Amino acid sequence: MDSCSHPSLVPLDDALEQILHQVTRLNSLPQTLSIDKALGRILAEDVVSPFDIPHADNSAMDGYAMKAEDSTASLTVIATVYAGHPFTGEVKKGECVRIMTGGEIPKGADAVIMQENANVESDNNSLYNTVSFREAASSRQNVRPKGEDIAKGACVLKKGHRLKAADIGLLASLGLSKVSVVSPLKVAVISTGDELQIPGTPLAPGQFYESNGFTSSAMLERFGVEVINLGIVRDDLEELRNAFRKADELADVVITSGGVSVGEADYSKQVVEELGQIDFWKVAIKPGKPFAFGRLPSSYFIGLPGNPVSSMVTLHQLGFPILRKLQGEQDKSRIRIKAKTTKPLRKRPGRTDFQRAIYHTDVSGQVWVQATGGQGSGLLTSMSQANCYIVLEQERGHVEQDEEVMIEPFDGFIA
Ligand SMILES: Nc1nc2c(c(=O)[nH]1)N[C@H]1C(S)=C(S)[C@@H](COP(=O)(O)OP(=O)(O)OC[C@H]3O[C@@H](n4cnc5c(N)ncnc54)[C@H](O)[C@@H]3O)O[C@H]1N2
Ligand code: MOO
């Protein structure tokens, strides 16, 4: 271990592993929702396709459908096929049908030639047009096969998947109007601290406006849980006991901010230990070192540090994986990509550093990144201006200009 490493701090990945090991999926009852209300929700069961999509072979082009082997001859156009209006007859040798994109390939035909490659030879004395082609077709040319997108019986979306816009469309294309999703977790949010004041009211000397309850609630709303914001609780043991007991009754998870460090009024951990237990404290992450995890009688406890950036970073990096596991969500690992720094970065070995930054790509495709100014854990503007983290490895020191670093673009829950 590097001499600068703090021996009691657990490296981030180990911390996550230790914490998640103690978390089990909650057995909440699934809910049935109409698909237009299910965006962002977690599937409670696999979705299996009841049929092939497309249902039948259909045309990828506006043109003519025939037997491929016939395409060098002059053919009689026996019908016009529109999408949604299949032709019930059969295409025989010497025949073709005019067909529109999406139209079902009729019996007997196996290829489509686009109309730009066709010469229509009208004959006023005949009931039908004849058509010849500038290309010879190969079998299956311009035919979108039955089941090309989804085969009957295929598992289209897996239990634990978070529904995106395309998934809602996919459910609709399967003819499903309802879907079974996991009931939202109930998450209580508490901000602790004597110095905190509610925005919209005047500040007394020494007070600060509370912001962590707002950032946490906003992130949690986006994340799709039911947020119960219990507001500010003073640094008083009895008030904290009462608030934590109430939160424990109301919620599956109690998330607090502040009071998890070593100060004389940092009571949150003490109260959790009285009512339940602290399973984990202190992770080698900057900002956010005093992050705590534990249990109250009937809920999980997540103790975020009070500094506003620390509270956001730890909710995102440690809190969200816990919530994902509780609701049985498949964890899609975070995307990290390489970038080069436009300016040097200050960093001391010992903790994985999540510096707030802006990245962009230049014309050559190179990704560049620059920190958003001061990186103090109370500087919320550094977060507000950022579109990514620069993730600097635990034992890394200062970073020079033009050095390669890993960045983590913000996902939709924090951006
Ligand atoms: N002697 C030590 N002191 C501190 C250490 C340490 O290891 N030894 N760790 C520091 C680190 S790192 C952090 S992070 C903070 C976290 O402390 P707490 O979680 O106990 O948070 P508080 O002391 O209650 O508050 C810290 C800071 O954040 C402001 N705050 C708190 N809640 C809110 C809120 N809801 N909205 C906006 N701002 C909030 C508070 O006013 C303080 O300025 O401890 C260091 N100290
Ligand atoms: O770990 Mo603290 O969040 O750096 O200020």
From TrEMBL:
Q: Per the record, what are the reactions this protein catalyses? A: adenylyl-molybdopterin + molybdate = Mo-molybdopterin + AMP + H(+)
Q: Which GO terms describe its cellular component?
A: cytosol
Q: Name one Pfam family in it.
A: MoCF_biosynth
Co-factor(s): Mg(2+)
- Origin superkingdom: Bacteria
Q: In which pathway does it act?
A: Cofactor biosynthesis; molybdopterin biosynthesis
Q: Could you tell me the EC number(s) of this protein?
A: 2.10.1.1
GO MF entries:
metal ion binding; molybdopterin molybdotransferase activity
Location of the MoaB/Mog domain:
188-325
Q: Name one GO biological process term.
A: Mo-molybdopterin cofactor biosynthetic process
Mind telling me which InterPro entries this protein's record contains?
Answer: MoaB/Mog-like_dom_sf (IPR036425), MoaB/Mog_dom (IPR001453), MoCF_biosynth_CS (IPR008284), MoeA-like (IPR038987), MoeA_C_domain_IV (IPR005111), MoeA_C_domain_IV_sf (IPR036688), MoeA_linker/N (IPR005110), MoeA_linker/N_sf (IPR036135)
Give UniProt keywords alphabetically.
Answer: Magnesium, Metal-binding, Molybdenum, Molybdenum cofactor biosynthesis, Transferase
Q: Which family does it belong to?
A: Belongs to the MoeA family.
Q: What does this protein do?
A: Catalyzes the insertion of molybdate into adenylated molybdopterin with the concomitant release of AMP.
Q: Which PANTHER family match?
A: GEPHYRIN (PTHR10192:SF5), MOLYBDOPTERIN BIOSYNTHESIS PROTEIN (PTHR10192)
The protein here is known as: Molybdopterin molybdenumtransferase
